[in-house]
Amino acid sequence: MAPRKTRKNSRNTSSATQDPPATTPPNELGELQVELERLRQSTEAQLAEARAEVAEARAQAEAAEARAQAQAAAVPAVRIVRIPRPRGGKGGLQAAMGLEDDDELYASIQRTVRRAVIQAGIDLHSTLSDISVEKLANVFKKVRETHPYMDRQRFSLDWPTLELVKQYLRNHRKYSLKVGRLAPYSRSRSTQRLRNVDDDISDNGDGEAAA
């Protein structure tokens, strides 16, 4: 029985002599705590700096907006003088639009009207009564967007644009008749001729041919 007791004691002795768990020395813990504190302070400083930069940028933006508003208030509003559709008198459409001294703008508006009519899908051989309201509205909108001068505050119901549309269709139809592309309208048709502003002004001074 003695040998068995000896082996048991040897196992107990081996277990008792195992190395204890590793532990971090106190000096290393102190260094880690110091480093963590340094990182925390550095992060807080960076956050404070970022907040200050954001606040400064916001203040500058608000100041710029205030200056812009003050400048806008100081500029007198431009008063748009309404130009009504003429009834009688002399002069052509260009003069009626107040563009008798601005041939370049008038010609540019004419070109825009022609492009807008084509883009709207309007049949160039049609009469005004054949054109849908939606297509005419698209033409009016395109002309206003391209030329601020054609604002509705100046020209109610887009009357100059309507006149230019009629003018374009009338001239195109006249040319088509001349070259044989279009048969003449019957005299019985009430839409044979598109009445235009020059009928009221009694003078076709803008140089456009009448149908």
From TrEMBL:
Residues 1-29, 188-211 are annotated as: Disordered. Residues 11-21 have a biased composition (Polar residues). Residues 199-211 have a biased composition (Acidic residues). Residues 29-74 form a coiled coil. It comes from the Eukaryota. Residues 1-10 have a biased composition (Basic residues). Keywords: Coiled coil. The keyword Coiled coil applies. The lineage of its organism: Eukaryota, Fungi, Dikarya, Basidiomycota, Agaricomycotina. It comes from Candolleomyces aberdarensis. This is Uncharacterized protein.
